[in-house]
Amino acid sequence: MTNRWPGHAPTTSKLLLKVLLRAQSGDEGFSYAERVLFTACEFWAAAKTRNLHAHLGLDANHRLRVAEEAFAVVGLVSIPTILRLERIHLCDQASPASLRGMAIRIEDALGRDEESVDVKLCEFACDQSRDRLPAPMHQVM
Question: Which residue in 38, 40, 54, 72 has its CB near the most CB atoms, within 10 A?
């Protein structure tokens, strides 16, 4: 990931800002789509800025699982696979050193991956502004 990431697309950022402002006001009634978008964008930003280790924290397994689901819902294929494989590997070794190494491996793998994540996130944000996602079976966050 040698290129400097410019951040989320304007459409994505606009929808995220609306979600954050609602959360700041105490609103807790977020849709499944809003939770998916927030989870995917938060994870993606952490990975692109090489802060994934801090983002995952002590609950790495859970955060990887919900990010895996969120990226799949957004319509990505290889990202969920990368996260699933690392999550399985994490179950075998959960030391602090292995967590840092795992975060670096994920950041590197996402940097090499050719899926257009920012484009997919923007498309998903646009779709959700039109309220097209069906109700969830369970919540992501």
Answer: 40
- Kindly report, residue by residue over 25-68, the tens digit of the pLDDT: 777 777 888 888 889 999 999 999 999 999 998 889 999 999 99
Q: How far apart are CA 116 and CA 18, in angstroms?
A: 24
Q: Is 75 left (phi over 0), alpha (psi -120 to 50) or beta?
A: left
The structure tokens listed for 32 are 């499944």
Token look-up 């179950």 returns: 91
| 23-138-106 Cα angle (round to 5) | 75
pTM of this structure: 0.78
Q: 115 CB contacts (<8 Å, ≥6 apart)?
A: 76, 77, 78, 79
CA distance linking residue 140 with residue 55, whole number of Å: 16
Q: Which residue has the tokens 């292995």?
A: 98
Span of 65-69, 99-103, 125-129 with lowest mean pLDDT: 125-129
DSSP H helical ranges for the chain: 10-24, 32-48, 52-56, 60-74, 78-92, 96-112, 117-129
Note the pLDDT of residue 82. 95
Rounded Cα–Cα distance for residues 39 and 125 (Å): 12
